[in-house]
């Protein structure tokens, strides 16, 4: 069973085709990177994958279950960070992470331990007893990532997770994603940082103007050059 299977997904915003018959599979145990220019459709695809947006056409299966039929047992095994990280501003960082664990179905007896583990993993100890509403942008991002990870999800969907992170945060996240994949989690991550993608991804899919235009080898010699060649060829093909 795959962590995520998207088939033939299309979606328009008014007259703009944001997704055009997109297929994407994220296997358990792999880090699958989604790369593309601004406006290519990465966030829209992730939103469709998480049932935050109902596409005009196509199907989405999460952990082997069609999203329309997915219940709490499925969504409790999914972690995500899309858009601005959510946190209750009046709760402390540790309380927020406890709440995120409980909302994802972690038992009351285990939620404190789970929150403590992600506080340590994201190096949030200095801010753990601070109210989330007072945090810096980068630390809010760390809390968002900790919330996505606190319940050991089997599918992790992260939209540009290195946004606002400092270099030590980028390294921490890299290690956490690799460890999650080693433990069997299916990881889908969008990014503009091709050097970072090359370090962590098992597979790289390129989305351009709403279409999936191909895959790149993350271990290839010049990912950036290969990426530009692929999107320019897609543009040429579209003009023909
Ligand atoms: N709610 C919306 N209403 C109208 N158009 C939208 C909406 N959301 C996205 N779009 C449009 O759909 C297209 C794809 O947007 P999307 O946010 O998926 O791109 P992206 O690849 O995530 O871009 P970025 O790298 O800039 O985050 C863009 O042209 C965008 O303007």
From TrEMBL:
Pfam families: ABC_tran. CDD domains: ABC_DR_subfamily_A. It comes from the Bacteria. Keywords: ATP-binding, Nucleotide-binding, Transport. One of its GO terms (molecular function) is ATP binding. SUPFAM superfamilies: P-loop containing nucleoside triphosphate hydrolases (SSF52540). Gene3D superfamilies: P-loop containing nucleotide triphosphate hydrolases. Residues 4-234 form the ABC transporter domain. InterPro entries: AAA+_ATPase, ABC_transporter-like_ATP-bd, ABC_transporter-like_CS, P-loop_NTPase. Transmembrane segments: none annotated. Belongs to the ABC transporter superfamily. This is ABC transporter ATP-binding protein. It comes from Nocardioides aestuarii.
